[in-house]
Protein backbone atom coordinates (compact mmCIF):
# COMPACT_ATOMS: atom_id res chain seq x y z
CA UNK A 1 0.00 0.00 0.00
CA UNK A 2 1.52 3.33 -0.96
CA UNK A 3 1.91 6.31 1.40
CA UNK A 4 -0.94 8.27 -0.22
CA UNK A 5 -3.45 5.47 0.40
CA UNK A 6 -2.14 4.82 3.89
CA UNK A 7 -2.47 8.53 4.70
CA UNK A 8 -6.07 8.59 3.51
CA UNK A 9 -6.94 5.54 5.60
CA UNK A 10 -5.39 7.14 8.69
CA UNK A 11 -7.37 10.34 8.09
CA UNK A 12 -10.58 8.28 8.12
CA UNK A 13 -9.43 6.61 11.33
CA UNK A 14 -8.93 10.00 12.99
CA UNK A 15 -12.26 11.32 11.68
CA UNK A 16 -14.13 8.31 13.06
CA UNK A 17 -12.30 8.72 16.39
CA UNK A 18 -13.53 12.32 16.51
CA UNK A 19 -17.10 11.27 15.70
CA UNK A 20 -16.93 8.59 18.39
CA UNK A 21 -15.74 11.19 20.90
CA UNK A 22 -18.68 13.45 20.06
CA UNK A 23 -21.20 10.60 20.29
CA UNK A 24 -19.82 9.28 23.58
CA UNK A 25 -19.21 12.55 25.43
CA UNK A 26 -21.77 15.09 24.19
CA UNK A 27 -25.29 14.78 25.60
CA UNK A 28 -26.67 17.00 22.84
CA UNK A 29 -25.30 14.56 20.26
CA UNK A 30 -27.52 11.91 21.81
CA UNK A 31 -30.50 14.16 21.21
CA UNK A 32 -29.34 14.81 17.63
CA UNK A 33 -28.99 11.04 17.11
CA UNK A 34 -32.53 10.37 18.32
CA UNK A 35 -34.04 13.15 16.23
CA UNK A 36 -32.00 12.14 13.18
CA UNK A 37 -33.28 8.56 13.47
CA UNK A 38 -36.88 9.73 13.94
CA UNK A 39 -36.71 12.03 10.90
CA UNK A 40 -35.27 9.24 8.75
CA UNK A 41 -37.98 6.80 9.86
CA UNK A 42 -40.78 9.32 9.18
CA UNK A 43 -39.26 10.30 5.82
CA UNK A 44 -39.02 6.63 4.81
CA UNK A 45 -42.63 6.06 5.92
CA UNK A 46 -43.74 8.99 3.79
CA UNK A 47 -41.74 7.79 0.77
CA UNK A 48 -40.39 11.28 0.15
CA UNK A 49 -38.98 12.39 -3.18
CA UNK A 50 -35.22 12.49 -3.75
CA UNK A 51 -35.38 16.27 -3.58
CA UNK A 52 -37.08 16.21 -0.16
CA UNK A 53 -34.56 13.62 1.06
CA UNK A 54 -31.76 15.87 -0.10
CA UNK A 55 -33.18 18.85 1.76
CA UNK A 56 -33.61 16.81 4.95
CA UNK A 57 -30.09 15.38 4.70
CA UNK A 58 -28.65 18.87 4.27
CA UNK A 59 -30.52 20.03 7.37
CA UNK A 60 -29.34 17.00 9.36
CA UNK A 61 -25.79 17.55 8.16
CA UNK A 62 -25.96 21.23 9.14
CA UNK A 63 -26.84 20.39 12.74
CA UNK A 64 -24.25 17.61 13.03
CA UNK A 65 -21.53 19.79 11.54
CA UNK A 66 -22.35 22.62 13.94
CA UNK A 67 -22.34 20.22 16.91
CA UNK A 68 -19.00 18.72 15.90
CA UNK A 69 -17.38 22.13 15.41
CA UNK A 70 -18.85 23.27 18.74
CA UNK A 71 -17.28 20.28 20.49
CA UNK A 72 -13.92 20.94 18.82
CA UNK A 73 -14.00 24.62 19.74
CA UNK A 74 -14.92 23.88 23.35
CA UNK A 75 -11.98 21.47 23.64
CA UNK A 76 -9.61 24.01 22.14
CA UNK A 77 -10.85 26.80 24.42
CA UNK A 78 -10.45 24.51 27.45
CA UNK A 79 -6.89 23.78 26.36
CA UNK A 80 -5.77 27.38 25.86
CA UNK A 81 -7.83 28.88 28.69
CA UNK A 82 -8.18 26.36 31.53
CA UNK A 83 -9.16 29.19 33.89
CA UNK A 84 -12.46 31.02 33.32
CA UNK A 85 -12.05 34.01 31.03
CA UNK A 86 -14.67 36.32 29.50
CA UNK A 87 -13.38 35.74 25.96
CA UNK A 88 -13.39 31.96 26.46
CA UNK A 89 -17.03 32.22 27.55
CA UNK A 90 -17.89 34.28 24.49
CA UNK A 91 -16.24 31.73 22.17
CA UNK A 92 -18.14 28.85 23.77
CA UNK A 93 -21.45 30.74 23.86
CA UNK A 94 -21.21 31.82 20.22
CA UNK A 95 -20.32 28.29 19.15
CA UNK A 96 -23.31 26.93 21.08
CA UNK A 97 -25.48 29.58 19.42
CA UNK A 98 -24.41 28.24 16.01
CA UNK A 99 -25.72 24.81 17.04
CA UNK A 100 -28.95 26.36 18.31
CA UNK A 101 -29.54 28.34 15.11
CA UNK A 102 -28.77 25.34 12.89
CA UNK A 103 -31.14 23.17 14.97
CA UNK A 104 -33.92 25.77 14.78
CA UNK A 105 -33.51 26.10 11.01
CA UNK A 106 -33.51 22.32 10.69
CA UNK A 107 -36.71 22.06 12.71
CA UNK A 108 -38.33 24.52 10.30
CA UNK A 109 -37.06 22.57 7.30
CA UNK A 110 -38.28 19.32 8.86
CA UNK A 111 -41.74 20.71 9.51
CA UNK A 112 -42.04 22.21 6.02
CA UNK A 113 -40.85 18.98 4.42
CA UNK A 114 -42.54 16.36 6.58
CA UNK A 115 -45.73 17.91 7.89
CA UNK A 116 -47.75 18.32 4.65
CA UNK A 117 -47.22 14.73 3.42
CA UNK A 118 -47.70 13.40 6.95
CA UNK A 119 -51.05 15.20 7.26
CA UNK A 120 -52.09 13.89 3.81
CA UNK A 121 -51.06 10.35 4.79
CA UNK A 122 -52.86 10.38 8.13
CA UNK A 123 -56.13 12.09 7.13
CA UNK A 124 -58.83 9.87 5.65
Written description of the protein model:
The protein has 124 residues and is mainly alpha-helical. The protein has one domain (27-122): Helix Hairpins. It is built from four helices and no strands. The chain has helices at residues 3-25, 27-46, 50-80, 86-122. Helix 1 crosses helix 2 (27-46) and helix 2 (27-46) runs antiparallel to helix 3 (50-80). The termini are far apart. The mean pLDDT is 95.
Give the key terms.
single chain, mainly alpha, Helix Hairpins, 4 helices, 90% helix, flat
- What value does the Rg take, in angstroms? 18 Å
The quaternary organization reads as single chain
Number of helices: 4
The succession of helices and strands, N to C, reads HHHH
CATH architecture: Orthogonal Bundle
What proportion of the residues is helical, as a percent range? over 70%
Average predicted confidence as pLDDT: 95
The level 1 CATH classification is Mainly Alpha
Shape: flat
Structural class by helix and strand composition: mainly alpha
Uncertain residue ranges: none
- What name does the CATH topology carry? Helix Hairpins
- The total number of structural domains is 1
Strand content: under 5%
Q: Would you count the extended β strands for me? A: 0
Sheet having the most strands: none
* N-C termini distance: 60 Å
Concise account of the structure shown:
Helices cover 90% and strands 0% of the residues. The chain has 124 residues and is mainly α.
Amino acid sequence: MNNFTRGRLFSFKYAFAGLKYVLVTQRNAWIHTTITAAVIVVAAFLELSFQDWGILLLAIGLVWTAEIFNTALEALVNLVSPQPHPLAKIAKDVSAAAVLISAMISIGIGLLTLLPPLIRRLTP
